[in-house]
Inverse folding.
C-alpha cells in the first residue's frame, strides 16, 4: 500500500465516521447518552489535529495525491490534497468543533443521533474537498446532504419538519442534476478522474460536455444558494437548530463553492461562458440577497439571505476571470465562513435567551451582556466590511479587481456593502438598543461564549493582519490552475 | 437507443411529478422515479449487446475489454441505489412527522416558515 504521509488530513474522514457511529451506539442506552457530546467533541478535536499535521507541508502550494488501496488512477479513487483542501479542512473541523461545543448547552433534548449526524456531516464535507474523482464527489455530497436533512429536521416540531422535507426534496433534485452531469461526462469522455478529465476535456469537442458542465454547476449552485437556486435556504436555516444552521451556512455552502471552483476551473479549464454566467448570477445574488435581507423580521432568515448575498460576492469575483478576482473570492470564502458562523451561533445565543428569533420581539424580552453585545457588533460590522475587520480586507481586494474591469461595477459593489451595513445595523438596533430596561439581564453559559469569543477574535486578527489570508488565497488560486492540478495528480 | 428514450422519459416524469404534484408522498415517488431513470441511463452507457459479465477469468486484459460490458457504471449505479433508498426512507420518515403536525400531506398547506 502506498501511503503518502503528507496527506494526514485524509485520516480525519474515517475518524469522524467512526466517531459518528460511536456517538449513535453510546446514545442507544439512555444512561450513556450524556456522554455522546464528549465523544463527538473528542473526535472532532482529533480530526482537527490530523488536519493541522498536514498544514505545514501543503500550505506553501504543494499538491499531493494518492490512490485509495493503491489501485492505479482510472480504477482506484484518487485523493488529492492541496492548499484549498487544507484550508477548507481546517475550517470544517474547526467550526464543526465550535458548533459541537456550542451545542453542549444549546441542544436541550438529548437524542443520540444529533452528535453522530454532526460528525458524519463533517466527514462528508471533508470528503468533498479531498476527493479527486467525480463520482466520489457525488457520494460525499450525498453523505453530507442526508446528514444535513436529518439535522435540519432535528427538532420534531412543525417548523423543523417543514424545513427538513423542503430541503430534502430540493436537495435530492439538485443531486440528481449532479449525477446526470456525471453520467453525461462519463458517456462523452470515458473517465471520471478529475485530473484525467481535465486532460481529456481539453481535446474533446463533444456537444454533451457543455450540457454536463451546466448540470454540474447548477447542482453545486443549489448547495451554496446562488440566486436562481436560493429559495430553500431561508426555510432550511430558519427551521434548523442554530449550530446546524451555522455549519450549513458556513461550511456546506463552502463545499458548494469549492466544487464550482474545482470542477469549473481545474477540470473544465474555466471556459469564458462559465465565468460570465458566474459573474452575472453572482451579481444577481448580491442584489437579491441584500434586498430580501433588509425586508426580513426573522434573524435567521435575514442571515440566510445575507449568505446568498455574500456568496454572490465570492462567485462574482471569481467570474471576473482575473488572478486578483480569484484571490479576492477565495479570501472572501475564509472571511465569510468565520463571520457567518459567528453570526449564526450568536443567533443561537439570542434564541437560547429570548426563545424566539423574531427581531422585533427579542429586544423587548431580554437585555444581553456587554460582552455578547460587542461580539455581535463585531460580526455585523465585519459582514458589512468596516475597516480593521476581516470582511473589509477581502472586500477591498474584490473592489480593486472589479475596478480593473469597470468602475461602474465597483460603485455597484460598494452600494451592496452599504445595504449589508443597513440590515446588520437594523438587526443590532432592534435586538440590542431598543430594549426596555425592565427586561431581565442574561447570563450566557461559558461553553456557548467560548466559540463566539474565538471567532470574534479571528475576525479582528485577520482584519488587522490581512497578510495571513492574502498569502493563502494566492497559493490557492495558483493551485486551481488545470495544468498545475493535472501534472500534480497524474505525475 | 430505446433504453435512452425510456431513461429520458422516466427522468422527465420524475421531475414533473416532483414539481407539479402537491401530495408529499407523490413527490417522494417522483424522486424515486427520477433516480431510477438516472440509473437506467448510467447502465445503458456501459451496456454492450451480447457482452460478457465483467468478471476477469483470463489474463489477457485487452481481449477481455473487447467483449465485456463496462463495469464502472454498474458500480456507480449500485452506490447510487443505496443513496436513493436512504433518501426515500428519510423522506418518508419526515412525511410521517409532517402529517403528525399538519394533519395534511398537501405541500401547498405546509407553510408555517415565514418572516
Amino acid at each position: 500500500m502506498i501511503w503518502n504521509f503528507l496527506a494526514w488530513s485524509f485520516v480525519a474522514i474515517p475518524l469522524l465516521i467512526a466517531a459518528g457511529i460511536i456517538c449513535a451506539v453510546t446514545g442507544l442506552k439512555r444512561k450513556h447518552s450524556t456522554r455522546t457530546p464528549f465523544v463527538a467533541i473528542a473526535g472532532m478535536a482529533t480530526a482537527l489535529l490530523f488536519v493541522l499535521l498536514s498544514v505545514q507541508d501543503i500550505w506553501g502550494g504543494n499538491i499531493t495525491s494518492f490512490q485509495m488501496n493503491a489501485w492505479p488512477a482510472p480504477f482506484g479513487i484518487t485523493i488529492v490534497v492541496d492548499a484549498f483542501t487544507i484550508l477548507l479542512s481546517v475550517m470544517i473541523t474547526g467550526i464543526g468543533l465550535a458548533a459541537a461545543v456550542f451545542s453542549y448547552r444549546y441542544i436541550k433534548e438529548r437524542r443520540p443521533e444529533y452528535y453522530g449526524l454532526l460528525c458524519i456531516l463533517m466527514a462528508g464535507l471533508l470528503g468533498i474537498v479531498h476527493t479527486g474523482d467525480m463520482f466520489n464527489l457525488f457520494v460525499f455530497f450525498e453523505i453530507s446532504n442526508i446528514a444535513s436533512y436529518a439535522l435540519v429536521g432535528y427538532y420534531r416540531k412543525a417548523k423543523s419538519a417543514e424545513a427538513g422535507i423542503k430541503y430534502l426534496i430540493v436537495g435530492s433534485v439538485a443531486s440528481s442534476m449532479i449525477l446526470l452531469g456525471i453520467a453525461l461526462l462519463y458517456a462523452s469522455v470515458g473517465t471520471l478522474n478529475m485530473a484525467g478529465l481535465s486532460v481529456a476535456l481539453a481535446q474533446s469537442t463533444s456537444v454533451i460536455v457543455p450540457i454536463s458542465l451546466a448540470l454540474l454547476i447548477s447542482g453545486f449552485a443549489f448547495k451554496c444558494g446562488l440566486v436562481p437556486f436560493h429559495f430553500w435556504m431561508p426555510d432550511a436555516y430558519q427551521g434548523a437548530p442554530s449550530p446546524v444552521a451555522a455549519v450549513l451556512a458556513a461550511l456546506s455552502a463552502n463545499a458548494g463553492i469549492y466544487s464550482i471552483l474545482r470542477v469549473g476551473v481545474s477540470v473544465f479549464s474555466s471556459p469564458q461562458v462559465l465565468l460570465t454566467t458566474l459573474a452575472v448570477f453572482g451579481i444577481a445574488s448580491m442584489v437579491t440577497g441584500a434586498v430580501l435581507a433588509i425586508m426580513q423580521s426573522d434573524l435567521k432568515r435575514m442571515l440566510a439571505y445575507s449568505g446568498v448575498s455574500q456568496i454572490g460576492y465570492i462567485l462574482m469575483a471569481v467570474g471576473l476571470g482575473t488572478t486578483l478576482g480569484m484571490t479576492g473570492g477565495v479570501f472572501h470564502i475564509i472571511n465569510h465562513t468565520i463571520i457567518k458562523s459567528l453570526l449564526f451561533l450568536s443567533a443561537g445565543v439570542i434564541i437560547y435567551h429570548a426563545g424566539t428569533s423574531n427581531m422585533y420581539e427579542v429586544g423587548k424580552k431580554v437585555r444581553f451582556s456587554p460582552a455578547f453585545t460587542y461580539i455581535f457588533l463585531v460580526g455585523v460590522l465585519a459582514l458589512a466590511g468596516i475597516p480593521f475587520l476581516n470582511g473589509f480586507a477581502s472586500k477591498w481586494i474584490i473592489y480593486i479587481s472589479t475596478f480593473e474591469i469597470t468602475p461602474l461595477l465597483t460603485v455597484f459593489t460598494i452600494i451592496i456593502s452599504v445595504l449589508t451595513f443597513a440590515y446588520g445595523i437594523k438587526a443590532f438596533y432592534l435586538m440590542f438598543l431598543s430594549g426596555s430596561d425592565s427586561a431581565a439581564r442574561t447570563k450566557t453559559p461559558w461553553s456557548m461564549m467560548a466559540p463566539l469569543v474565538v471567532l470574534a477574535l479571528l475576525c479582528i486578527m485577520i482584519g488587522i493582519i490581512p497578510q495571513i489570508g492574502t498569502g493563502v488565497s494566492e497559493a490557492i488560486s495558483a493551485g486551481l490552475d488545470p495544468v498545475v492540478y493535472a501534472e500534480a495528480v497524474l505525475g | 437507443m430505446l433504453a435512452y428514450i425510456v431513461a429520458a422519459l422516466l427522468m422527465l416524469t420524475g421531475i414533473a411529478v416532483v414539481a407539479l404534484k402537491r401530495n408529499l408522498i407523490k413527490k417522494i415517488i417522483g424522486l424515486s422515479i427520477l433516480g431510477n431513470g438516472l440509473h437506467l441511463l448510467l447502465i445503458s452507457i456501459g451496456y454492450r449487446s451480447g457482452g460478457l459479465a465483467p468478471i476477469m477469468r483470463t489474463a489477457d486484459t485487452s481481449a477481455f475489454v473487447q467483449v465485456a460490458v463496462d463495469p464502472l457504471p454498474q458500480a456507480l449505479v449500485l452506490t447510487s441505489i443505496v443513496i436513493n433508498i436512504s433518501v426515500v426512507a428519510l423522506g418518508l420518515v419526515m412525511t410521517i412527522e409532517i402529517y403528525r403536525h399538519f394533519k395534511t400531506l398537501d405541500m401547498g398547506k405546509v407553510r408555517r416558515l415565514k418572516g
